Amino acid sequence: MAQTPAEKYAELSIKLKRRYQRLWREVRSELARADAENYQDTAGETHDAGDQSVADVVVDVNLADVHRDIGEMREIEAALGRLVEGSYGTCIDCGGEIPVQRLYANPAAARCAPCQTRYEQLHVPSVGPSL
Asked: What is the spatial distance between Cα 57 and Cα 24, in angstroms, rounded to a whole number?
């Protein structure tokens, strides 16, 4: 027997909540580790340029991971909000239906694939020289 849309959305809701909890634990763990391990420990006692560069990169990567995870958590919160208000599965740009296959691949998806592509082309900064 095929699942009803409500059953599919209930399944996706569980998937969203589990992912959110996993991300929450990762962020808490990373922040606790960063708090326990200060820059001095990362760089070591010798402060040459190479050690400092490595320490800077390690700190930046850890913070980038936390920032990425928090961004995903916000997307999940928004998706759960759309579930509650009844607009989950509807593209926030064009109002069309987001295919359920896309929602299973990315339960926090807020846009249909064409609108997501257009959004990324308009909003994602190009990679290149910044000076």
From this structure: 23
